[in-house]
Amino acid sequence: MYDITLSISYHYDSPAAVSHNMLRILPRTLPGQQLITGLITADPRPSFRRDSLDFFGNVITEIGYDMPVKDVFFRFAGRVRRNVEASNLDLSPQVGKLASDLSAAATLDSISPHHFTGPSDRIHLHPEIAAFARQQASSSMSVVSAVQAISQAIHRELIFDPEATEVATLPIEAFRARRGVCQDFTHIMITALRSLGIPAGYVSGFLRTIPPTGQERLEGADAMHAWVQAWCGMEMGWMQIDPTNNIVVGGDHIVVALGRDYSDVAPIKGAIRTVGKHETEHEVNVIPL
Amino acid sequence: MNGQARAQLESSLQFLQSYRPPIGVTDELLQRDGSLRPVWRPLIELLASQSPEAMARRMAAGDQYLNDAGVYFRQLAQGASTERAWPLSHIPVVIAGAEWQQLAEGIAQRAELLEQVMADLYGPARLVREGLLPAELIARNSEWLRPLVGVQPPGGHYLHFLAFEIGRSPDGGWFVLGDRTQAPSGAGFALENRMATSRVFFDHYPNANVERLAGFFRGFRDALNDLRQDMDGRVAILTPGQETDTYFEHAYIARYLGFMLLEGEDIKAERGRLNVRTISGPEPISVMWRRLDSRFADPLELDESSAIGTPGMVSTLRDGAATIVNALGSGVLEARALLAFLPRISQVLTGAPLKLPNIATWWCGQPQERAYVKSNLARMIIGPALSTQLPFDADSATFLGGSFRTAARPSIEEWLVSDGAGLVGQESVSLSTTPALVNGSLVPRPMTVRVFAARTSKGWIVMPGGYARIGQSDDPTALSMQKGGSVADVWVIGEKPVVTDSLSDQPQGPFVRRMPGILPSRAADNLYWLGRYVERAEGVIRLVRAYNRRLAETGDPDQPLLAALAQFLDRFGTDVSQPVPENVLNLLDFAQNCAGKIRDRFSIDGWSALADLSRTVRDMSRTARTGDDASRAMSVLLRKLAGFSGLVHDNMFHFMGWRFLTIGRALERADRTSAFLAEFADVASPPGGFDLAVEVGDSVMTHRRRYAVETNRSTVIDLLALDINNPRSILFQLEQISRQDAYLPKSTVNGQMSPFSRTALRLHTELSVATPDEVNTARLWNLRDEIATMSNDLTHLYLD
């Protein structure tokens, strides 16, 4: 069980005339995760607010201001229960045989693996990443072991470096620089998996801030975090893995949104009519109870 | 057959002697046995009876029409785009009414089928679950927009206006090359082709039983009006803006149908509604004919890099804010691969086969189909499965199977295996040929026709005519205008004489004067800045002329007055060492850019005058030399500018848009005159400053007549700042601003004056009672600050 707070602040040099924001910061309720309480607030009081679900079932909160605003704060506070049952069984098919599982999954509902195979806004297959993926995994490996091998390789070869990239950095740029943050690690891994024919998506969420005694603090705990979900065939379905820390996702990760890449799940998207510059700050706290 | 008829027939046969359609294709003009199709006969007889000179005169009349109407298209080459003359092929494609009727039934059936597929893909997705469409073809299609899944259109229908690119195969039957469901263009161009072609055949067209197009547009206009949920809501046309190659058509069709032409930034999504930002505040839109690709419509939920969308639009559609024509996401239906599945879908959904078949298509993601394509490579067009291009608009990734070199074949076969799911094979059908006039004689050229269908309350209607594309050579891949092809009108010939028809209903009941509709803020903004830029250009040109005149007299740029003038101009970004300073070119470009954004509201003459100015100044900048030559060049520009101003002020309807233009011009003139007087009518100004001020203020004669003395500070200030009768004085500008402001919607709200009105009135009063000695340099500088505030206030009130 966790108490979670997230605050996002914006400061505009010249007040924005009209602004329209779209937040995806409310944790989801999924098998193994329940949102017990949760509240999103905004200051100043919005002129307009609307909550709805997006295609992938994530909660969207739209917040609009008619009047010029100079400082805006968005805040989420809530409590989430996590109960993950770890399973060590690998029931996934070989990578080379995943395609027949895939064609059997003839649906377009939100968890259909078909959404996660081709290019998406921020994921474009790239020969360099594809070659890297082929070095780590062969078509005779099981999908689960291929996913783990790629996570391990990315964790081994890339350095976590918040200064190296920004939110718009392309996966291939971060890959070549061998540096980046959780978003880059995740995008690179998705690109690698899709190039092997393994459906892969982007998960945004929170990570426990203070590690249990005796364990190391995980990277990415002081802001919103990102990791990968991969489809391991009809039998096993989706598994989540965190390449930044190279761990299979367990009780320390709290899922906020699922999508094909960052643009499906961005915690905040905004459209503001302003000419000046702005600054933004995020702060996350995930406290186990 | 009487003698005259026989003579006509013989001359027709002679005329067609050299017309030889290729073997194995259908020809529109000649039947298989070489005889003339009866429906073409009257037109061919007319053509055969023309002398070459008479024919040339006819063609010229058509071209003249297009030129006067300002029809152009944008040619895109190497990243740049230029406006090019409209490539009209003057000979229409002639089709018999009975045949057209059949075609129209097939079109209507297909339109309804596409509606059902659309409703399924954005609803239950049954077609995928039941195996009629592969999941990956939809999931990987970037035009299948997930945020729109589950969003139902208010009126229940997704599709309202469609186009179909059709061709005729060697067996004589029509088939569909591609469905255009996203935001099909061409209907407006079809109208323009008709106008031009009817001028070419001015004596023949009226009685040739050619079906008229106006009824179709009236039907669609009424249908759009019927889609409004309440009478408050407005119908608008949404355009991506003047940079798109079909912007001309958007402006044209907006004018023709009488709907507002809007861009994404005109619209605001708020509280579950879509409103247009107007000078009187937000006004609801309830129907929007979208000429913009769906992905760009909303940067918040769709393509986040879009700068031409309306943030939050998708969310308002969830609340049923408006009917979008066609619904966002309709581009999913354009993917080539869908053509492989539509025949079967038609059977399953409607129990009937397609009346109008489409080009045979095989999706190579299925083993059997892939094998078929592989073994029939020679007559296949192979290309990306999800491409929305027509098969003959070969993109760089599409290949004509027949033209593979043998050496290349193995790699294509490999390609089919490695990326089968990404590819389709389409049968490479030979298109029919139709006559085009080349060097005075008719030659057969391949063609396709774009046909338009609109949903009305009585079902789908099909435009009796269309937009034909004619190839430049026998090569069917060279049909597009971008590749040198041309376009032609399509005549559907009925059995009976047609009733002359036009778009406007005959008014019934007492005469009601209708005032022009609302003015969107962005249009007002562009008109305001058009006024300012033209005036600013004029001011700079006058100064540059004065500089060069004096330089020609003295030959000494270091002379104090010239040095001061050069420095003054430099402060406003103008470098007088250039004979035609670059800033003049820039200012005229800015003006033209503003006018370009409001072409639906701006007269064609006004536009031509601006374009002419731009051309002239560019020519001059290549040849003019500093001094006398440059001074004379500036005089030419001033005369042309006066011509433009005359058009605007004598011919433009004095409604809101004109008032913003006029205020822009007056504010700019007041500002520049203040700046100039502060600099050159100061007690410390270099000698000659007073005369210069009077000259630049275009008031030399008045001054001479009025004061009968040498210029001095008082006479100059009196004439150029305080004289209410001098159209160049500052007070005159303030008078003009106050007069126009009184008509603006927010000049007085609940008895309270707007900040803009307040300042305008205060400055007007202060200058009205001022004497020349009170208007010193400090006060002139202060006046400029006040004017800047007024511009900000005006922007904030009306234009933001």
The overall pLDDT of chain B, averaged over residues, is: 89
Number of DSSP E strands of chain A: 15
- Termini separation of chain B comes to 73 Å
Helix percentage range of chain A: 10-25%
Q: How does this structure look, described?
A:
The complex is a heterodimer of chains A (289) and B (800). Chain A has two domains: 2-83 and 266-288, Immunoglobulin-like, CATH 2.60.40; 95-264, C8orf32 fold (Roll), CATH 3.10.620. In chain A, 21% of the residues lie in helices and 37% in strands. Chain A is built from seven helices and 15 strands. Chain A starts with a strand and ends with a strand. With 800 residues, chain B is α+β, with helices and mostly antiparallel strands. Chains A and B meet through strand 4 and strand 14 of A and helix 6 and strand 8 of B.
Which characteristics define this entry?
heterodimer, A: 289 residues, alpha+beta, Immunoglobulin-like, C8orf32 fold, 2 domains, five-stranded antiparallel sheet, four-stranded antiparallel sheet, 7 helices, 15 strands, 21% helix, globular, B: 800 residues, Dna Ligase, domain 1, eight-stranded mixed sheet, six-stranded mixed sheet, 25 helices
Outline of this structure?
With 289 residues, chain A is an alpha+beta fold.
Helices and strands, with pairings:
The complex is a heterodimer of chains A (289) and B (800).
Chain A: E1 2-16, E2 19-23, E3 33-43, E4 48-53, E5 59-65, E6 69-82, H1 98-104, H2 127-136, H3 143-157, E7 159-160, H4 171-177, E8 179-180, H5 182-195, E9 200-207, E10 225-231, H6 233-236, E11 238-242, E12 247-248, E13 253-259, H7 262-265, E14 268-272, E15 278-288
Parallel strand pairs in A: 7-8
Antiparallel strand pairs in A: 1-6, 1-15, 2-5, 2-14, 3-6, 4-5, 9-10, 9-13, 10-11, 11-12
Chain B: H1 3-15, H2 41-48, H3 52-69, E1 72-77, E2 80-85, E3 93-96, H4 97-121, H5 126-129, H6 135-139, E4 161-168, E5 174-180, H7 187-200, H8 214-226, E6 234-238, H9 247-257, E7 260-262, E8 267-270, E9 273-278, E10 281-290, H10 313-318, E11 323-325, H11 342-350, E12 361-363, H12 367-375, E13 380-384, E14 399-400, H13 409-418, E15 423-427, E16 433-438, E17 441-456, E18 459-462, E19 467-470, E20 486-493, H14 521-554, H15 560-571, H16 582-596, H17 604-623, H18 628-651, H19 656-680, H20 689-696, H21 700-707, H22 713-722, H23 730-741, E21 748-749, E22 752-753, H24 755-769, H25 777-799
Parallel strand pairs in B: 3-20, 6-7, 6-10, 10-11
Antiparallel strand pairs in B: 1-2, 4-5, 4-17, 8-9, 9-10, 12-15, 13-14, 13-15, 16-17, 17-18, 17-19, 19-20, 21-22
